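STRUCTURE:
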């Protein structure tokens, strides 16, 4: 039944389109149309989007039953994407939109001429927009089996380790994606289906993004907003460098300017806080270049070209013979990975050099480009790591456009450290294990117990 509004309360089927931050491209937005069933009365309402992949999301039928019994707000009307706590006051509508594994923004909207339009706010900051109209059209909204076909074709042509795709794990994933895409009704369910199933293959940086990705002007504010590097002095003699992320806008020159500030502060100790840092690009290693006093081989990056010719990691001799990428050149990195199929990386000292004591803080959310930095500082003995094991999500990836406006973030390379260890799925273990929230205090205690120079 097409949607209607009774005394300000939306009812029936609506097409609700949200514009929110992209899943895999910071600074961009995506539009996701959702078919939502609205119901309610007396100034209260709720909406749910029936899902074809509900048991996949909650982990099976038994967990679905438990979710319905113990936490009914998480499973509404056969769907996990839902609008809860809806209130209608005249033409003003409020509620909370639950998008699993993404966000739970609050909605502030108005209803006029049978149309809903408003804004979304998450954790006190602008998050996106929402528009809803009654829907009596067909479902599914588009050809979702074609999305499954495009994903598989792209994997076959671009995934970094082709032999993986013939394994039972990947074959099961591809079969499940084909099955679920034949059942979904809208873009939200298609994204939920794919990205839930994708977690089972054990590959990081593997995400399907919504169709119609567009530049955000202005971009919604996200948790990572703010300067990527923040330098503070938590106590005399100690500098704290908080690295929130390593975006493509961050350059080696920016890193150098931070170390010039550290040099001017006369700090004896430096704490590099990588907790919650989800990575970015390998300019992260520019931090190591200001901390190391000698040239250090970091590791190798192995792409599709390597794995089509080899079935094992390179020997020391093979690694030494690979082309070297020593400059912080992102286009050059992707070009070398594509053309040569593999490369080795080296960190060389840079000025100003910090010679004091260094502690690095890590946790389970320290990921991607932040992990080789933690690894090389630990391996060389230049820093003591305090906190928790890093995420182990170190695959290089590219964002590729698919037919129909979809975008796939696809792993195109894997990082192997100088000791010959592939960090994907392993991460970097700390020297001192403490909960993430206690890591900074433990760093102070650690430094106090060891005199400068000791």
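SEQUENCE:
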């Amino acid at each position: 039944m097409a949607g209607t509004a009774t005394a300000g309360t939306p009812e029936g089927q609506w097409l609700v389109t949200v514009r929110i931050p992209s899943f895999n491209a910071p600074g961009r937005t995506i539009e996701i149309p959702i078919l939502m069933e609205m119901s309610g009365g007396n100034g209260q309402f709720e909406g749910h989007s029936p899902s074809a992949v509900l048991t996949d999301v909650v982990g099976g039928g038994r967990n679905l039953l438990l979710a319905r019994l113990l936490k009914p707000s998480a499973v509404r009307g056969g769907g996990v994407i839902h609008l809860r706590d809806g209130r209608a006051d005249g033409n003003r509508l409020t509620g909370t939109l639950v998008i699993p594994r993404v966000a739970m923004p609050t909605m502030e909207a108005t209803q006029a001429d049978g149309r809903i339009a408003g804004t979304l706010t998450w954790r006190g900051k602008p998050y996106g927009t929402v528009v809803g109209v009654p829907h009596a059209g067909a479902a599914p909204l588009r050809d979702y089996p074609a999305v499954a076909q495009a994903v598989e074709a792209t994997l076959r042509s671009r995934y970094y380790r082709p032999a993986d795709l013939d394994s039972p794990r990947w074959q099961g994933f591809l079969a499940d994606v084909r099955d679920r895409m034949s059942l979904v009704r809208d873009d939200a369910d298609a994204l939920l289906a794919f990205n839930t199933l994708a977690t089972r293959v054990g590959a990081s940086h593997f995400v399907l993004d919504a169709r119609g990705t567009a530049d955000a002007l202005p971009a919604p504010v996200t948790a990572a907003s703010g300067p990527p590097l923040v330098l503070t002095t938590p106590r005399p003699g100690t500098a704290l460098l908080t690295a929130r992320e390593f975006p493509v806008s961050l350059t080696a020159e920016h890193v150098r300017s931070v170390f010039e500030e550290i040099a001017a502060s006369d700090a004896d100790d430096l704490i590099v806080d990588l907790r919650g840092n989800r990575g970015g690009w390998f300019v992260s290693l520019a931090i190591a270049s200001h901390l190391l006093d000698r040239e250090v081989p970091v590791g190798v990056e192995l792409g599709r070209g390597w794995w089509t010719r080899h079935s094992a990691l390179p020997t020391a001799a093979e690694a030494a013979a690979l082309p070297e990428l020593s400059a912080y050149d992102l286009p050059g990195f992707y070009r070398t990975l594509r053309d040569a199929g593999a490369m080795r990386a080296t960190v060389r000292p840079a000025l100003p050099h910090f010679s004091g004591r260094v502690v690095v803080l890590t946790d389970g959310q320290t990921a991607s480009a932040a992990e080789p930095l933690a690894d090389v500082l630990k391996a060389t003995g230049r820093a003591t790591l305090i906190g928790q094991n890093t995420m182990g999500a170190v695959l290089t990836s590219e964002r590729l456009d698919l037919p129909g406006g979809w975008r796939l973030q696809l792993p195109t390379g894997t990082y192997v450290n100088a000791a010959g260890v592939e960090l994907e799925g392993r991460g970097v273990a700390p020297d001192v294990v403490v909960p993430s929230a206690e890591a900074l205090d433990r760093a102070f205690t650690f430094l106090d117990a060891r005199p400068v120079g000791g």
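REMARK: Residues 92 and 110 are 5 Å apart (CA to CA).
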